[in-house]
């Protein structure tokens, strides 16, 4: 009978990652809720805001967020009803459409970002020295590129150097 090593550092890494992710989500939720945004709503509008022309093809948005096409459609439908996102037909492909951040969506995002960024700084990035943060972001990108290679699809060549959102 073999003996399993329950102290395997791979298990520790996964456990810490899960704990940090859950903790950050819990920390960020009150500010997002106050702005009437769920985590996926926030992820959607911030990805649109950081995209060229503040828009993404619906299929690219689905790939970036890890949602199914029907899942991203439901999110965009809800955000469209709230006036935060609009749909725009693709001139070159009748089958495709874009999700576009509206002015109201940009304003909602601008209203939540200062407090959200303060939370991010207080319990995440601000805890790391500049060199630690740079190395950490590099490590996250390396892992992201393996487990979520579509996370930057639809972005211009200059955009991938920006940090990706959790997703």
TrEMBL record:
Superkingdom of origin organism = Bacteria
Which part of the chain is the HTH marR-type domain? 10-145
A single Gene Ontology MF term assigned here is:
DNA-binding transcription factor activity
Name of one Pfam family that matches? MarR_2
- Give the InterPro entries listed for this entry: HTH_MarR-typ, MarR/SlyA-like, WH-like_DNA-bd_sf, WH_DNA-bd_sf
Query: Which processes are annotated in GO (biological process)?
Result: response to stress
The name of this protein is MarR family transcriptional regulator
